[in-house]
Amino acid sequence: MEIKGLYGTALCIPAWRMPRYRLTIRRAFGDLSLETDRLEELVESADKLVSAAKMIESRVGATEQLHGQTEDTAGTARKRRGRSEAALALDAIERLLIPSGFFSTPKTTAEVRLKIAEATGLKLQSRKVSQALGYLYNQKKLTRVGQRGNYRWLKK
Predict the structure, then answer these.
(1) pLDDT 10s digits, 81-137
(2) Do 100 and 127 have their domain in common?
(3) What residues make up the domain containing 37?
(4) Counted domains in the chain
């Protein structure tokens, strides 16, 4: 039915203003999603999506995990995979270097980086070690001497 004078404005809704609906099923093999702008279509297609997920799962193998995932980590492939280098550097500095007295004399970022590599086997980027040292400086666990770009770090 067409209403005179409203035809152009009634049907011209910008695409970015239209609601979008998404249904996602998480399985061991990954995620399966259906997206539509009509809620009714989403509800009508939900059973088809579930049966498609079951069919894919049976072909892939219900117990087979992709990418070396365990049952505990299945379906979490898009989540954060591990700790950042700065977090690893921070942990190594706090757990190994500070208690051992390494910072009793001023140390450069390069020296700290080398000591972390010797102690843990981690070869971290200099800027990530520097970021961890800066965090410890802000927490008042370490102090620094020298000019910007040439700091040396020591325990307070």
Answers:
(1) 567 889 999 999 999 999 999 999 999 999 999 999 998 888 999 999 999 999 999
(2) yes
(3) 7-68
(4) 2
